[in-house]
Amino acid sequence: MILLYGMALERDYESIPGTYVYDAERGRIGYALNMFCMSLNKPENRKSFKEDPGTYLDRFKLTSEQRRAVLERDWLGMLKVGGNIYYTIKIAFCDGLTFQDVAGMMSGVPRETYAQMMLAGGRSPDGNRFKSRPEPEADNG
Q1: Are 102 and 112 contacting, i.e. CB atoms less than 8 angstroms apart?
Q2: 3 - beta bridge partners?
Q3: CA distances from 104 to 48, 76, 107, 115, 136 (A)
Q4: Phi and psi for 76 in degrees, rounded to 5?
């Protein structure tokens, strides 16, 4: 939801289950989190973060929820609080994880199951289109 001239506006994509679109609002909210993630591009920063994550995070103005999500490796939680997947994945790489590992965790399945699901064409859209609107009925005639 965004505010425009003092009015709250809901975006169409907010009604898609499990979807956290990285838009301008999430970018604003997640700026410090994403800057932390970008800092991990430097080997010396990765080393410092691995040695003492809490102290390293003190360098950034993270919210308590962003800090919790990073420390607990709550991958979906990071996206909910403004993280961009292309930035937050840098944390996973520090931990020796792959993108498939993280995608499996976010989907609630092991990496191998996630990989097979993607090879088979991905997750079915049935029941995954809207949180608050009924599915459109198929026209069979």
Answers
A1: no
A2: 8
A3: 27, 11, 5, 8, 29
A4: -65, -35
Do 31 and 82 fall within a single domain? yes
60, 112, 113: which is closest to 87 by C-alpha? 60
Per the document, the length of the chain is 141
If asked whether residues 90 and 101 sit together in one domain, one would say no
Q: Which domain holds residue 112?
A: 97-125
Averaged pLDDT for residues 38-50: 97
pLDDT tens digits for range 12-35: 666 666 667 778 888 899 999 999
CA distance 66 to 122: 29
Number of domains, the chain: 2
Q: Is there a single domain that holds both residue 47 and residue 88?
A: yes
In contact, 41 and 64? CB cutoff 8 Å: no
- Kindly report, residue by residue over 66-104, the tens digit of the pLDDT: 999 999 999 999 999 999 999 999 999 999 999 999 989
Interior angle at CA 12, CA 10 and CA 15, nearest 5: 90
The pLDDT of residue 3 is above 50: no
